[in-house]
Write a structure and sequence with these properties.
Blueprint (H helix, E strand, L loop, with lengths): L2 H24 L4 E5 L3 E7 L7 E11 L9 E8 L8 E6 L1 E3 L2 E8 L3 E11 L2 E11 L1
Antiparallel strand pairs: 1-2, 2-3, 3-7, 4-5, 4-8, 6-7, 8-9
The structure holds copper (II) ion.
The site of copper (II) ion has 5 residues, from loops.
Length: 136
């Protein structure tokens, strides 16, 4: 191997290495933005593909002037209707404020589509965001 080839090989290895290391940073996670009558809400999970078991959910809340809202009480409910050989499932958890965002752990006990509702209580009003989470 002459000096030139060696340099090319080393550069190729370096670039491959950088791309490999960088990939997780650019991998898209599950995310949903929603605007209600009172809020801009950003809901996300840490991963794109969600498996059974514990999954961390993060909820960012702003008012319609894009001002951070940190005095809300947020609960997350996730349910699955009854199926063959499986009773209806219902879980509820409270999200906790951490560094300006609301966080909770959802425990998906089964694969399939979970009907999920984020309920936001603030100033005597209730806002809801409904969505589905597909668990594989
Ligand atoms: Cu089920």
């Amino acid at each position: 191997m002459n000096i030139k080839t060696s340099w090319k090989v080393k550069t190729a290895i370096l670039i491959f290495g950088l791309v490999t290391i960088s990939t997780p940073i650019f991998a898209k996670n599950w995310q949903m933005d929603k605007t209600t009558k009172d809020y801009n809400i950003q809901i996300s999970f840490e991963k794109d593909k969600l498996n059974m078991g514990n999954q961390a959910i993060t909820i960012g809340l702003q008012d319609l002037n894009k001002k951070l809202v940190t005095d809300a009480q947020i609960t997350v409910e996730y349910t699955m209707p009854a199926m063959m050989g499986m009773p209806a499932m219902y879980y509820k958890t409270e999200a906790k404020l951490e560094k300006g965002q609301y966080k909770a752990i959802l425990d998906f006990s089964m694969e399939g589509s979970w009907n999920t509702v984020v309920k936001i209580k603030r100033l005597g009003k209730l806002s809801k965001v409904n969505f589905n989470v597909d668990v594989h």
